[in-house]
C-alpha cells in the first residue's frame, strides 16, 4: 500500500508540474498533450477538491509558473478527473518549478490520499487534421484503437479533406498517442462545446458533410473503410468532460 501511494504521489506531482498552458490551440505546431487520468476514491470528492485548492493557493504564493486545466467526467466511471497540460519539447520537463518544490512536500500527501489510481498518457496534436477551437467548457472525446495505421490515416485524411472543402465550422482537434499502452487509445478527436446547451444544437457532423459530398452510398463506403482500420476489440468509445475552473491554473485566470 505504501508503494502504491508513493507511485500515485509521483504521478500526480508530475502531472501538475507539466509546463505550458493546457488546451491552447493558438500555435499550429505539434504540441504534446499530457493527460493525467485520475480516479478519486468514492466519497472523497470534496476532500480531493479541498486538498487541490490548498496546493494551488500555495503554488501561486510561491511563484509556480506551470499551467494546467482540470476536467471532470460527465459519463462513464464516476469520480474520474483529468489534469491536462501541453508541452512543446521534451526538454521542458527538465525545468525546475519553485512552486511545486515548495508546496508538494506539504500538500502532496493529503492530495494523493484521496486518489485511488492514476495513469498518464502523452499525445501529439495533429494540426493538419484539426480545426480551431476556443471558448469551450465541455468536450467530447472520440477514442480509437487502430489495427492498420496507414489505412486509418488515409481514410481520415479524406474525411477531413471533405470537411475543409465544406468549410465546416465545428472541426475537431485530433491527437496521436506518443508511445502505446495496453487497451489505450491510439488516436482521439475532440469535439468542443461552449457549454452543455451547445450539445443540443443540430450539428451536421462529418457524416452530414460526407453525405453532401458523396451521397448516402458514398458516405457508407467511407465508413466501411474506416471501420476496417480499427482494432477488433474495444475499437471505439467516447467520453464527455466538463472543465472545472476552480481546479485549473491558467494564466488567463490571473
Topology:
Layout: H1 2-16, E1 32-40, H2 45-61, E2 69-73, E3 80-87, H3 98-112, E4 115-125, E5 138-144, H4 149-165, E6 173-178, E7 187-193, H5 205-228, E8 236-243
Antiparallel strand pairs: 1-3, 1-4, 2-3, 2-8, 4-6, 5-7, 5-8, 6-7
What's the short version?
The chain is α+β, with helices and mostly antiparallel strands.
Characterize the structure shown.
This protein is of the alpha+beta class and 254 residues long. It contains five helices and eight strands, in the order H-E-H-E-E-H-E-E-H-E-E-H-E. The chain folds into two domains: 2-123, Alpha-Beta Plaits, CATH 3.30.70.100; 127-239, 2-Layer Sandwich (Alpha-Beta Plaits). The protein has an eight-stranded antiparallel barrel. A hairpin with an 8-residue loop joins strand 6 and strand 7 (187-193). Helix 1 (2-16) crosses helix 3 and helix 2 (45-61) packs antiparallel against helix 3. It starts with a helix and ends in an 11-residue tail after the last strand.
Assign an overall shape. elongated
Strand arrangement within the widest β-sheet reads: 1-3-2-8-5-7-6-4
Secondary-structure arrangement, i.e. CATH architecture of the largest domain: 2-Layer Sandwich
CATH structural fold name of the largest domain: Alpha-Beta Plaits
Total DSSP helices: 5
User: Stretches where pLDDT falls below 50 for ≥5 residues?
Assistant: 1-7, 19-28
Q: Summarize the main sheet.
A: 8 strands, antiparallel, barrel
Mean pLDDT: 89
Relative strand content: 15-25%
> SSE string, helix = H, strand = E?
HEHEEHEEHEEHE
Give Rg in angstroms: 19 Å
CATH C-level name of the largest domain? Alpha Beta
Q: For the record, give the distance between the C-alpha atoms at the N and C termini, rounded to a whole number.
A: 38 Å
- Helix/sheet category: alpha+beta
Share of helical residues: 25-40%
Strand tally: 8
